[in-house]
Predict the structure.
Amino acid sequence: MDSVFKAVGFDLDGTFLRTHVDYSRLNDADRTILESLGIPFDEIDFGDAVKRQRHPIRNWLESNGRGDEFGSIDRMIDDLCTEIECEFVDEAEPFPGSVECIDIIRSKGLRVGILTRGSRGYAETALGTCGLTGRFDAIVGRDYRSYDDAKPSPVAMFDFARELGVEPSEILYLGDNVADYLSARDAGAAFVGVLSGACTAEDWRAQDPDMVVVDYAGSVVDLL
């Protein structure tokens, strides 16, 4: 890999850690909150984004004279997401090579961080469960700024780079799903796909036939 890198970044779930998250509930947290408030979820046009965004909710509320409710509803959805993420957080464990690679990366003079769609609180709890508190130069979650700026938005990668003190082009980022790849690609960061989570080798080839793919995130030390 190119020696221009100054930092290595990892997605959390399915990449750096093996975790147990009820993604069915998590992905429907917005539906759960909206329907509990009498808002007809199925009337809202969310489009075909890779990850469902929040601005269509704001648009619906504003169109129906309830725009002033968006802030509280947004927080309610985030709180439910974090609750779901943390439900089985004590089951989190590093994938093979994850812990060991941190010191090796640092020995090469590189910074190391976590960029996740999970909340920062969840990420810190999961890492703490694995004895990894304080081991990273930056941890950026979906609550760093507005939800719609989380991965797959490139804004998330720009924020991550800022926290690491580098440019996006100086980051080598590893992830297990398409949202990870899109955020890195669109911000100009280099990307390596892992096979420990959501995507298969075929899935990665469909995104980029030339993508470097590894079994586990810890294998990054063989690429540097």
